[in-house]
Write a structure and sequence with these properties.
about 45% helix; about 450 residues; 3-stranded antiparallel β-sheet; alpha/beta
Length: about 450
């Protein structure tokens, strides 16, 4: 069975980069009829917060990315401790004491000598007496995993064949001095225990993957299939990291982006396939990692609005009737209101602006050269209520009285009544108007 996972840290809100990872793993599981796990990487007790856990769940629910089960790393600390002890006994996990300053000096010295800045494994030569002396000096030990110096190879689902010389990589720190288990270790244990078969994540994790393959094998597991998608950039190729806060799912949702629009864009971005509005089932059926490449992928939030508009304008009345009722639209006008306003919105929230125009009247737009014309036209407009024939009858009277016709007749009247140069057919608008401010 195919088992995938999305493993966010609840230290902030999910952003579009996180979503790409979540969506790819979700689509792989759904296409195969497998299992999608939401796994909270919450071992950092200081930074992990329940409000972010709730936010992650809310964002995924909003998108329809429903998980089959949820796991929390904070509930598995005993398991990590047991595996760590086994690795200590086997000699794969060893204690080190260098400070960040000392490590930085070592890296600079290696670079100056033309050598790769790789940890020199000083910790392996420490005796028990050496360690006790360091502790007496106030040093705190932390733990590194001893990599086998061999080539680590895998066939990446996006990048193709990958080969990394483990000798060019520092032995990774798996457990901090304060006892906190780090991502590289906890995830390796979890992926093994939970039978994860496929992992898709960002290309910034490639080196991480190499070390995790060895960790997984050292604890008796079989490495899953890995794929590393390209990282997102802005529309002009700029780094997204400085703007990522503005691209959180929470902010996009609150801005009125439709979930289907976001999913449809993110599932195709960077694949070479045309982006078109689709359901999750359709996206899963058509999803194929081989369509994606290694080049940075440009993301432009403006591309979400045409898709949002398409989705919202296609909604049936039943999908929005509660929202319309909440605006105060009378029940007997609700369906007409939706029919008239629906083709002139991008966000669902735009309905409120249209109902405000219909119920309270729009601020008229009157060009100076049209002022006398509008004044005459308004004298010919009876008070509400209006019906389906009001617009044609009124414009006929105005045409006869002023001699205007065509655009010179209709556009100034539209702008005076609705405050806008574009919008629904005025024959449909008039029966919904409760107030026309231009009448004075």
């Amino acid at each position: 069975m195919t088992i995938t996972r999305f493993a966010p840290s609840p230290t902030g809100h999910i952003h579009v980069g996180n979503l790409r990872t979540a969506l790819f793993n979700y689509l792989i599981a759904r296409k195969a009829g497998g299992t999608f796990i939401l796994r909270l990487d919450d071992t950092d007790q200081e930074r992990s917060k329940e409000e972010y856990v709730d936010g992650i769940k809310r964002d995924l629910d909003w998108l329809g990315l429903h998980w089959d089960r949820i796991e929390r790393q904070s509930l598995r600390l005993d398991r990590y401790a047991g595996v760590a002890e086994d690795l200590r006994k086997s000699g794969r996990l060893y204690e080190v004491f260098e400070t960040p300053t000392e490590l930085d000096l070592k890296r600079k010295k290696q670079l100056n000598m033309g050598k790769p800045p790789v940890y020199d494994r000083t910790g392996l030569s420490l005796t028990d007496a050496d360690k006790e002396k360091l502790r007496a000096e106030g040093r705190e030990g932390y733990w590194r995993f001893q990599l086998d110096h061999e080539r680590i190879e895998w066939n990446d689902g996006i990048l193709g064949d990958i080969s990394i010389d483990a000798a060019s990589v520092s032995d990774p720190v798996l457990i901090r001095a304060d006892g906190q288990v780090l991502y590289t270790f906890a995830s390796s244990v979890d992926d093994t225990d939970m039978g994860v078969t496929d992992i898709v994540r960002g290309s910034d994790h490639v080196t991480n993957t190499a070390t995790q393959i060895q960790i997984i094998r050292s604890i008796g597991g079989t490495p899953p299939s890995f794929a590393h998608h390209s990282l997102l950039t802005g529309a002009k190729g700029e780094e997204l990291s400085k703007r990522i806060g503005a691209l959180s799912l929470k902010d996009l949702r609150e801005a009125g982006v439709a979930p289907e629009a976001l999913l449809s864009l993110m599932a195709r971005l960077g694949s070479g396939q045309p982006v078109k509005l689709a359901s999750l089932d359709e996206l899963a059926e058509q999803f194929d990692l081989s369509h994606f490449g290694a080049s940075p992928t440009k993301f432009d939030a403006d591309d979400l609005w045409p898709l949002t508009r398409e989705r919202n304008q296609a909604l049936p009345f039943d999908a929005v009737k509660d929202r319309i009722a909440a605006l105060g639209v009378p029940a007997d006008q609700a369906e007409r209101f939706w029919r008239v306003a629906s083709q002139n919105i991008t966000r669902i929230e735009d309905l409120g602006e249209w109902w405000k125009i219909f119920s309270e009247g729009a601020e008229p737009q009157i060009d100076p050269e049209d002022a006398e014309f509008i004044a005459e036209a308004m004298r010919l407009l009876p008070p509400p209520p209006y019906d389906d024939s009001t617009w044609s009858e009124w414009t006929a009277k105005v045409k006869a009285a002023t001699g205007r016709k065509g655009k010179g007749l209709f556009m100034p009247l539209r702008k005076a009544v609705t405050g806008q140069a574009h919008g629904p057919d005025m024959s449909d608008v008039m029966p919904l108007l409760h107030v026309v401010k231009a009448r004075g």
